[in-house]
């Protein structure tokens, strides 16, 4: 099997199980309806585990452009392979999302809410604050890539490593995913979002392209920063990229925090004015 086909199949498996569990939980009249966030996070972890077991020996089972870019940035993958990997991951994600659509055919028309249907395919933030949502995606993906490097990226298919990687995904989902739905993977969001736009889903509404940049930019930055941060801290490789990305990350953090503090002050002032009047 070629590396390209391996990434297509691995990412397809990831989305079949990942988007599939979301569909089962949120679509009307599914037997899994309303089974909750814990079910979703566990299934996403197992989805990654199955994808890694399936194709890890052929491509390393990145299944995620953020992982591919992160590994390439520290020399773990030749840059010449990056476009091939990312293209395969997006194709696999679109294919997996299409399979989920066909699996749940009767349930789309039973589900009236457009946002619920979109949530099967793409991430939707709990509170829509693009800058704060970006911070969440950066943090989650930084933790992901650092975690993969902790575990040992080149050992994924040996013994229990895929299960440990799955446990990492579950931990990220349960601890950090409640803000944005934890894309932490541009292909996981972009591929199914494209599928949502193209598929004849009854009453589907728009694909929310105005938000789509967040689960792309955040994970890409977080993936690269996580890899470079790991190299800097654990191999003493403090270089210019580390300092540049650290300054950018800190700037984004402070800007997002400042924006939220201003909103809080404005809300408190409005409440005070209302109370006085």
UniProtKB/TrEMBL annotation:
<keyword id="KW-0812">Transmembrane</keyword>
<dbReference type="InterPro" id="IPR000425">
    <property type="entry name" value="MIP"/>
</dbReference>
<keyword id="KW-0472">Membrane</keyword>
<keyword id="KW-0813">Transport</keyword>
<dbReference type="InterPro" id="IPR050363">
    <property type="entry name" value="MIP/Aquaporin"/>
</dbReference>
<dbReference type="Pfam" id="PF00230">
    <property type="entry name" value="MIP"/>
</dbReference>
<feature type="transmembrane region" description="Helical">
    <location>
        <begin position="211"/>
        <end position="234"/>
    </location>
</feature>
<feature type="transmembrane region" description="Helical">
    <location>
        <begin position="163"/>
        <end position="184"/>
    </location>
</feature>
<feature type="transmembrane region" description="Helical">
    <location>
        <begin position="82"/>
        <end position="105"/>
    </location>
</feature>
<protein>
    <submittedName>
        <fullName>MIP/aquaporin family protein</fullName>
    </submittedName>
</protein>
<keyword id="KW-1133">Transmembrane helix</keyword>
<dbReference type="InterPro" id="IPR022357">
    <property type="entry name" value="MIP_CS"/>
</dbReference>
<feature type="transmembrane region" description="Helical">
    <location>
        <begin position="134"/>
        <end position="151"/>
    </location>
</feature>
<comment type="similarity">
    <text>Belongs to the MIP/aquaporin (TC 1.A.8) family.</text>
</comment>
<feature type="transmembrane region" description="Helical">
    <location>
        <begin position="240"/>
        <end position="259"/>
    </location>
</feature>
<feature type="transmembrane region" description="Helical">
    <location>
        <begin position="6"/>
        <end position="27"/>
    </location>
</feature>
<dbReference type="InterPro" id="IPR023271">
    <property type="entry name" value="Aquaporin-like"/>
</dbReference>
<feature type="transmembrane region" description="Helical">
    <location>
        <begin position="39"/>
        <end position="62"/>
    </location>
</feature>
């Amino acid at each position: 099997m070629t590396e390209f086909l391996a990434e297509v199949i691995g990412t397809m498996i990831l989305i079949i199980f990942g988007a599939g569990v979301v569909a089962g939980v949120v679509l009307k009249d599914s037997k899994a309806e309303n089974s909750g966030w814990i079910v979703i996070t566990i299934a996403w972890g197992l989805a990654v585990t199955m994808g890694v077991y399936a194709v890890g020996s052929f491509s390393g089972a990145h299944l995620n452009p953020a992982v591919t870019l992160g590994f390439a940035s520290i020399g773990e993958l030749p840059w010449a392979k990056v476009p091939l990997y990312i293209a395969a991951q997006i194709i696999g994600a679109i294919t997996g999302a299409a399979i989920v659509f066909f699996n749940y055919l009767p349930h789309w028309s039973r589900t009236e809410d457009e946002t619920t249907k979109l949530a099967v395919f793409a991430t939707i933030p709990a509170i829509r604050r693009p800058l704060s949502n970006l911070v969440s995606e950066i943090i989650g993906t930084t933790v992901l890539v650092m975690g993969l490097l902790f575990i040992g990226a080149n050992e994924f298919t040996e013994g229990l490593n895929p299960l440990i990687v799955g446990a990492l995904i579950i931990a990220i989902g349960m601890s950090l995913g409640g803000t944005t739905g934890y894309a932490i993977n541009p292909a996981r969001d972009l591929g199914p979002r494209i599928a949502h736009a193209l598929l004849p889903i009854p009453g589907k509404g728009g694909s929310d392209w105005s938000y789509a940049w967040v689960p792309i930019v955040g994970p890409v930055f977080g993936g690269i920063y996580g890899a470079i941060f790991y190299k800097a801290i654990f191999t003493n490789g403090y270089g210019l990229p580390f300092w540049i990305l650290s300054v950018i990350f800190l700037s984004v953090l402070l800007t997002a925090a400042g924006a939220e503090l201003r909103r809080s002050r404005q809300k408190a002032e409005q409440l005070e004015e209302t109370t006085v009047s």
